[in-house]
Write a structure and sequence with these properties.
By secondary structure, the chain is mainly β. Among the domains are: 120 residues, no CATH class; 52 residues. The protein is built from two helices and 28 strands.
Length: 320
């Protein structure tokens, strides 16, 4: 023990010097604000003040309590119960962390009352939190935009009249169910004007895993209605069940199939279809003709303005 005390004695002035310097040498605005020690009873109490009284500090109990001020900057603390700092327009304080925390910056105000409730607010938006991190809501003050999350159950976004609800979202990588509604009529990908005044389109999806597989999807946004099942890699061509049709009564647009039993393709120029190997047809709008075939084409009939033509094994057996 004597050897330990002898080794510790030269280090005490250095330790006290660090503690004293933290109070007596602040970030100064002017040389006149240099603090001079007034009361020195470390570690029980320490007090220092500048000659003009504009900069001062005190601390005690090994620095666990104290306060300081200089120009517009100020701070006080009673650790670990409470502390506050202020440097306008910035300020920060807490009491019995995490039971209260507040901060103010040039563009943002934050207040948190334990994990039960809190908010962040600026001139353009506000975030509210409850039962952190379970509930959060972000709302714009400039437009109709709201984003609400109830973790991990759902995520709801509203933006300019369009709502999107996601059930059990998994970090944006997967979800059990997703629905959107209120989409404008011009949000489709076809350019003609057959849709008329249709609006309020919907998008629905059941189970999506990493964008690799989607169990079931529905979409009537824009000018077509789409239904798909077991979509792979977000590409409908990999769906064994797919249907897309024009919404307008006079729109002939069709893309649908039930692989490998049924396919139907049609547009303004005509189209073709088949139902297994038993029956199919081909339409040619330019020639105003329609051809039906049966049994892989063993038997077919072509209907044209000039009359009907029947074929067996591709050989005409009846002509107009």
């Amino acid at each position: 023990m004597p050897a330990f005390r002898a080794a510790l004695r030269p280090a005490l002035p250095a330790v006290l010097g660090v503690l004293l310097a933290s109070c007596s040498t602040p970030l100064l605005d002017a040389p006149s604000e240099v603090r001079q020690n007034r009361v020195v009873l470390p570690p029980v109490y320490w007090d220092a003040e500048s000659a003009d009284g504009s900069s001062w500090c005190w601390w005690g109990a090994f620095g666990l309590v104290g306060a300081e001020a200089e120009s517009q900057r100020s701070g006080a603390w009673a650790l670990p119960l409470w502390w506050t700092t202020s440097d306008p327009p910035y300020s920060e304080s807490t009491a019995l962390l995490p039971f209260y925390y507040g901060s103010t910056t040039l563009n943002e105000t934050s207040r948190f009352y334990s994990l039960l409730y809190g908010y962040k607010e600026s001139d353009t938006w506000r975030n509210d939190y409850a039962l952190i991190p379970i509930f959060s809501r972000r709302a714009s003050k400039l437009e109709d935009t709201v984003h609400t999350t109830v973790f991990p159950l759902c995520d709801w976004q509203t933006e300019r009249g369009v709502d999107e609800l996601t059930l059990v979202p998994l970090l944006g990588l997967a979800h059990v169910y997703k629905a959107g509604w209120g989409y404008p009529a011009d949000d489709g990908d076809r350019s003609d004007d057959r849709m008329g005044d249709h609006s309020g389109g919907r998008r629905l999806e059941l189970v999506n895993l990493l964008g690799i597989v989607s169990l079931l999807g529905y979409d009537d946004v824009g000018e077509t209605r789409e239904l798909r099942a077991l979509t792979l890699f977000s590409n409908e061509t990999w769906s064994p069940l797919y249907s897309r049709r024009g919404l307008a009564p006079d729109d002939p647009f069709v893309r649908e199939w039930l692989f490998p039993l049924y396919t139907n393709v049609a547009d303004d120029d005509g189209g073709w279809a088949y139902v297994g190997p038993f029956w199919g047809w081909i339409d040619d709008t330019a020639e105003r003709s329609h051809t039906d075939w049966w049994l892989l084409g063993l038997l077919s009939r072509n209907q044209a303005p000039a009359g009907d033509t029947w074929r067996v094994l591709g050989i005409p057996v009846s002509e107009p």
